[in-house]
Amino acid sequence: MLAVCLIQTQACSSRSVKAATVKAEQDRKPAPEFALKDADGKTVHLSDYKGKVVLLDFFATWCGPCKIEIPWFMEAERRNKDRGFAVLGVSMDDEGWEVVKPFLAELGVNYRVVIGNDATAGMYGGVDALPTTFLIDREGRIAAVHVGLASKKDFTDGIEQLLQNTAPAVTLNNDGRPRAE
Question: Which domains does the chain possess?
Fold first, then answer.
């Protein structure tokens, strides 16, 4: 529970933290795989989202900056879900679904949420502050990390950049072979 104490004392300040820009493809590391339960008791694996751009948000119901960002993530989910984008929330609340379900209902959260734990946080580098948000590319690699409250524009720009970064179209010759450009 030391991690929770650190999270509570270091995180949730209203000061904005400069967000990381989207990393070059060669600098991206694979996002760690996990298996966590959603509100329906179903196991969710990060690999379930392979092929999509994912915003993975570690948050808590008591975290003020988290409450600021969540509506932005709901909007991003609504606007981009048909483009291969998904938001996945990871609640770090010790009380679990008892506090998380009412919180999600009150805000009308439109994306999937799972309950995280110290082991999952550890796989992602320790998640020492909340919110901590990862943008994951379609290949399952971490493209950006935002620690603390980032701006809505930082998220919107990063999501858009990752959604546009798809394999370039290949022009074919009449015989069906790729044309040299």
Answer: 17-164 (3.40.30.10)
> What percentage of the chain exceeds 70 in pLDDT?
80
DSSP state of 150: P
- Among residues 71, 92, 76, the alpha carbon closest in space to that of 11 is found at 92
What DSSP state is assigned to residue 175? Answer: T
Omega before 71 cis (within 30°)?
no
pLDDT for residue 2 is more than 70: no
DSSP state for residue 16 in the 8-state scheme: B
**Residues sharing a CB contact under 8 Å with residue 177, sequence separation 6 or more, in sequence order:** none
Q: Where are the alpha helices (DSSP H) in the chain?
A: 2-10, 64-80, 97-107, 118-123, 152-164
Per-residue pLDDT tens over the stretch 44-92:
999 999 999 999 999 999 999 999 999 999 999 999 999 999 999 999 9
> 159: which residues sit within 8 A by CB, 6+ positions away?
53, 55, 76, 80, 85, 135
Question: Are the CB atoms for 130 and 17 separated by under 8 Å?
Answer: no
Contact assessment for residue 45 and residue 123, using Cβ atoms and an 8 Å cutoff? no
Whether pTM > 0.85 for this model: the answer is no
Q: Find the length of the chain.
A: 181
